[in-house]
Structures are given as structure tokens and as C-alpha cells.
Amino acid sequence: MGEPEAGSECAIGAAAAGPMADTQYILPNDIGVSSLDCREAFRLLSSTERLYAHYLSRAAWYGGLAVLLQTSPEAPYIYALLSRLFRAQDPDQLRQHALAEGLTEEEYQAFLVYAAGVYSNMGNYKSFGDTKFVPNLPKEKLERVILGSEAAQQHPEEVRGLWQTCGELMFSLESRLRHLGLGKEGITTYFSGNCTMEDAKLAQDFLDSQNLSAYNTRLFKEVGQDGKPSYEVRLASVLGTEPNLDSEMTSKLKSYEFQGSHFRVTRGDYAPILQKVVEHLEKAKAYAANSHQEQMLAQYIESFTQGSIEAHKKGSRFWIQDKGPIVESYIGFIESYRDPFGSRGEFEGFVAMVNKAMSAKFEWLVASAEQLLKELPWPPAFEKDKFLTPDFTSLDVLTFAGSGIPAGINIPNYDDLRQTEGFKNVSLGNVLAVAYATQREKLTFLEEEDKDLYIRWKGPSFDVQVGLHELLGHGSGKLFVQDEKGAFNFDQETVINPETGEQIQSWYRSGETWDSKFSTIASSYEECRAESVGLYLCLHPRVLEIFGFEGADAEDVVYVNWLNMVRAGLLALEFYTPEASSWRQAHMQARFVILRVLLEAGEGLVTVTPTTGSDGRPDARVRLDRDKIRTVGKPALERFLRRLQVLKSTGDVAGGRALYEGYAAVTDAPPECFLSLRDTVLLRKEARKLIVQPNTRLEGSEVQLLEYEASAAGLIRSFSERFLEDGPELEKILTQLATADAQCWKGPQ
Ligand SMILES: [Zn+2]
């Protein structure tokens, strides 16, 4: 699981947006741009560690390009077009040309921000919220810049061809194209355009029946002349159909009849990209610090070569065993947030370096974990038989390739490994530092008297929340499972459901997992459970002591942590789509649910009030009564957390859905009138910051760190220099892969 920081996903006024487009679908010109600072941690690496970090970073950056193919039909072409433009002319040179073509400074800046947004999100849909963003300037003007550019003069047919392929879609805000989704609901490239939720469910049942993981797959449906559907499940791998003798995968690559439908399992998705990933993982392996890292990389190489999630699991097992490395990394098809069905993973790869001071605090938390788990409001039988102490460190990110950078991670996501082998928790310190830099004037929806306190304590309180969320949130709770031999991992006679007072009536059968069973609500429900654990346990004096807070400071940390959650619950409305009655971001949905639970607790604990801002436009205020956190808030959260855990442990999908979807429903019911408040949230919304990442480059036998200025132009330069040698080759690969599937994306008829 990847964790975005609470609340700070919003950063800059909508008023700055021009008249061109609905402000929801553009990135504003004054969007915050920050550089990721990892200089000190990189300086402390040995030259071997730097080489290891360098080659892993290369592998991550190459693999991250697959996200373009996982996002929208046009994203690979847009990326190729932008990369060509900026390779031929850097942002300053292109600016001269753009102004000469009649663009205003604002229009050119809008183009730079758009390009930086495409690179940051690895596509033209926001990684956080899944909405499309379009360039905030007239299409005709952008066309003039592109067709008159140096790149177009060098390669006129190719540049014109790219523009013809993606220009319309780049600007289109046709309703189905406005956000990611399945079938009529939106755009996805995890499924061919003719797939529906029914197809997705059938495919999941098929995958479960064959013990195949969905993580590295996409689904393509064809309907034969007899009207019978035929599905291709395509695995990501370097190898295609060529026979390969000694792989567990080969036996699965065949045709199946399943519930009256035809299924064909194939592989070779993203093959040329994964080829580059594998080459650089091979190079990194030569500089591994220990045999865990070597074996881990060998398994990842096997996984990407063969298309085997089993090999990735084996690699993840070695990765878990590699405790507290100086250079930490993870790579693969990891997070399932952006698959509309919730089980296909988006590619990500990161490389980070240990941050010693913060890690010490987290170690204290780990040491207290067993004691703190007992404080959670469910019976011991609902807790794991043995708490597997996870590795919990604070890292500074060197490279984070994929669609976005989270503030913390808790992986692997494989349930079976999490239950038996454990997992690792990582807080990404330099990412949090970027997020903390809050300006007072950009703090929406808070009372004036709360603002200074909020700014003072947001960082420290979020450290506490992230630590608890990752370690005791995602790390807690047991799933009741019956294995393939029929044996249970709980005592059917004695374990009692505390909600019903009866014996356990439901559980997970062999092959069923949390994600496959709870599918569309699994991610958000689990984030909600982890966030709730954080709020609940931050009240514990021992926790505050570990992080070095006592007395009035400790109370302020608690207050700001709860206040931040309540505010985030309101900000979350940005990520709700009323037309589809659906949420687009798991963590934000979770925070809205928590706000609802705390509102339901009543007694004036939380109030949300519509107001009018000093600019005369609608505004709102959230208030939290700090004296009622322990007397009203805590018992409400306790009841809610117990229900969440019991329904999760028992695999009670119907009960879980009823509970979770009930709280997640957004209506105009008084007193809050959330649907109307959503308009205010959109009006006052601030754009998520863009983050500029460094490059590493091998000079002789030494690895150098190359940093870039914190601006849209700096971010674009970082990408232009990222693929100096093989940029044109990569763009060709991406457009060829996109073209090969181009006929699949037509929507439902
Ligand atoms: Zn989480």
C-alpha cells in the first residue's frame, strides 16, 4: 500500500485558472513545484552502494514508462511527442519559439505545467484522483508551437503523426474521458473498451480458479460472430509465445473453457520495456550488499522475464528478509488503486536511502508493537497469531518511478506473504518534508485560531500518524482462512464474533484474498482501517512518548492529528464523482468515511459549517472540539474499528459493503449537505504539488547525482536528461506498443 500524505494533496487556488477549461481538469500555472532533497543521504553512500542505487534507479525509470500504457490510449503518444519537443529544444529555447508564434507568457507556462504534469503522473490522468487534465491554452496555439518546433523541422512526418494521433484526445473532455473507469464509466487500458464490470468479475473468478494473480495482467475481450465472448488474459513479460522449457509459467499459457466462456492466457505485455528493466537489474545485482539482495533481484528478473507473480513473491520474500538495508528498493506491478476492478497492479519502482534519525523513533514503535496491538478494540483471536515485526524505517527517496510518489509504503501487498512472512514499512522522509511546507494563506477550511497550531504541529503529528497507520494499522488483524486441505487457522468452536455473539459463520477459502473478495472497496476499506488505528492509538501516552511528546505538546499533536483527518475528510469531496456516485481515491474516501463516523458521534465533537469567504464566494469551516476527543471521539472510533476488523476477518463482503458504502455515500442530506459542500471544496481546491526528482549518471566509475531546479521547466529537464542515450528508441517502443492495441479501446456501443 502506498500512502499519500493526509490533507496536503491540495495546494493552490482555483482562481488562477484561465477561462479555457473547467478548473477541475487543468493544472494551474502557479502549481507548487518542489525538489526532492536527498543530497545528504546520497553523500553518505559508499561508491558500491551508489552503483547499486544507480542501476536500480535505471531499472525503475524504464519500468515506470509502462504506466503510460496502463493509463490511457493516448498517454504513450503524448509522452513521445513531449519528449521529442524538449529533446530538440529545452524549455527556454522552446519559449522563444512559442512567443514568436503568438502565445502569451501565461499560455506557454500553461504548456510547461501540462508537460510537467504528464511526466509526474506518467500520463494525462492524475495519479491522485484519476481525473484527466488537459492543457490550459487554445489547441490551435499549441498546434502552431508543435508543428513549427525544431523537433518538427527535424522529423516533420513523425511529429505531425504524433500530434494527429493524440491532439484531439489530449484536449477532449467528453464525459467518458474525464476520469478512469470501466466500460461506460470511464477510460482504462487495463481492460479493452468493451469490457464491463461483469467481465471483470468473470475474469477474476477465472484467475482465481487457475491460481493466477491479476497483478501483472490486462484483459482483452473479443466477441465472436456467434456472440460468444472470448477473453485474452495477457501477462507482462519479456518472453512471448516462444517455448521455454523450465518455467512454471509455460504450463499456464494455453486456452481454457470457463463458465461457458473462452479464456486464453498469453504473455509478452510491455516486453521491450521489461527487457530494459531486466538488463539494469542484472547490472545492479553485481553491486548487491548481501545475498538477500542478490536472490531478490534474481527472482525479480525471473518474474519480469517469464511473467511470473510467483517469482515476484519469492523475490519479495528475500526482500522482507533484507532487514534495514542502506539502499532500499522495490519494483514491479504493485498497487491496484488504478485498476477499476481493483486487482491489477500499476508498475512502480523506487530506490531510497536510510534516514538514520527518524528510523530510530520508528524502531521504538516496532519494539512496542506487541503491547500496543493489545490496545486495539477487537478480541485477541482476531489478531495475528504472532506479530511479525516489520522493518520500519524512514528513507529519503532517490528515485520514485511510476504515477506518483506516496509519503509512506507498506508492502508487499501479497496477503499470503503478509500473513506468514511479514512486510516492510517505509516512511519517505524527504517526500513528507515537501508536503509539510504549508503556507498559511493556502490553508483552507480551518479557523484562524487553529492555523498556527496546525502549521506548528502538522509535520510531527503526521510522523505519528504514518508510523501507526503503517505498522499497527496495516500490520494488525487476522484473516480467518480455510486452506486447501480444509484446515482452519482459527478455532471454530471457541472464537466468537463480538458483533453478533455467535460463532464464526464466514471466512476466506483457499485462493481467496482480501483484494479478490472485497475488490472495489478493498483498498479504501483497508486504508480506512489503518487511518482509524492511527487516530485511535495516537491517544495512547506511550505512543506520544516514543515520538518525544509530553504534556501540552502531546495534546497539541493529538489535536492536530485529529483536526487534519477531519479537514482531509472534507477535502476528500474533490475525489468524489457525483455523476457516477463513485470515489476515485482510496485514501480520501477513507478519510471522508472517518469524518462521517466522527460527525455521527454527535455532541458537537465535529462540525462542518458553510460560510462566505472574504472574497464573497462560498467557503466552509471545520471545527473539532478538543475536549471531546477522548470522551466522544474515542468510543465512536472504537465501535467503528471493531466492526471494520470483524467484517474483514470473517470475509463478510455483504456486511462490509453495507457498512462502508453507507458511510461513503455522499448526499445533500442536512445538516452537512455534502454534495453542495463539494462545490465549495472544488472552488477552493489547491493543486497537488509536482515533485522534481534528481538523476544519477555514471561518470567513469563514479556515480554522480544531478539535481534540477524546482520548477516545471526543471522537471521537464530532469526527464529530458533521464533517457539521454535511448530516448528516441524508447519513444518508438512506446508508440509501437500503443499502436498494437489501438483498436481495443473503443468504448461500449
Ligand atoms: Zn495505508
From TrEMBL:
Pfam short name (any one): Peptidase_M49
A GO CC term attached to the entry: cytosol
Main enzyme class: hydrolase
GO molecular function terms noted in the UniProt entry: aminopeptidase activity; dipeptidyl-peptidase activity; metalloexopeptidase activity; zinc ion binding
E.C. no: 3.4.14.4
InterPro entries linked to this entry: Dipeptidyl-peptase3, Peptidase_M49
Coiled coil: none
PANTHER family: DIPEPTIDYL PEPTIDASE 3 (PTHR23422:SF11), DIPEPTIDYL PEPTIDASE III-RELATED (PTHR23422)
Family statement: Belongs to the peptidase M49 family.
Protein name (database record): Dipeptidyl peptidase 3
The species this protein was found in: Capra hircus (Goat)
Lineage of the organism: Eukaryota, Metazoa, Chordata, Craniata, Vertebrata
Gene of this entry: DPP3
